[in-house]
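WARN no homologs supplied; continuing
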Amino acid sequence: MEFNPDLWPALAATFGLFLFVGFFAQLVDGAVGMAYGVISSSVLLAFGVPPAQASATIHAAECFTTGASGASHLMHRNVDWKLLFRLAPAGVVGGVIGAYLLTGFDPTFIKAVVIAYLGVLGVFMMARAIRGPRDDEEPHLKHVIPLGVVGGFLDASGGGGWGPIVTSTLLGRGHAPRYVIGSVNSAEFVVTVAISLAFLWTMLTGRLQLEGGLATGGAALAGLIFGGLMAAPIAGYVTKIAPARGLLGAAALLVMCLSVWQGIQLWPRLLEYEIFSSVAQTAGLH
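OK structure emitted
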């Protein structure tokens, strides 16, 4: 297969952009236990990548970043094994279902849903940053399995959400942050691998069609991987010198702004759907 050398500048720019995105996203994720997928997904969608392809790209990158993060937590004994053994299988089930369903719907409609979902997650993350962790409840493992299923499903279908949904819920219940972040990040590696295999199966069977070419997609994927791996070793140090709530708040603001921008861009295409056109006319927006 011939490769056009004129593509190198564009590929280098794509790699550089997602190297920065992956680095920043992993710094935030390492500090607060969430936001790698949400930030990466928001940027990919903003560049016109279809939702299913964006989620597949992010989870392929996360196979490396979550593996490195999980290994670090295991070495430092930050894992609650009872919690891990409940979360991981449940997340796999929800994630595989989410990946399969995401590749079977109209891309424009799914993109609108994912943008709205990411916007809500941005608001949730901002509220979390303002409020800070809750520690007034006794730790318990009730409803962990349903939480894992929902977290895995939303993570696959939205390109991110495992951390904001699962980590925040468990922290809110009063679990020690060290074991919550360690266990959730370690379980995320298992969930991510399962989701990535599900997306690979959809590509091999033709259910998921890649857009933009393999070269551009590969450059974005490589940037996310290397950026995340570069940030992983220093995330612990950044946690010491930078306020976690400030990092989470900055990430939340970025996600909300990107969601609003993408929603404005997508609005004319959504008006082609009767349900959105009717709502817009009723609200006087069309």
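Residues 135-139 have pLDDT under 50 and may be disordered.
OK
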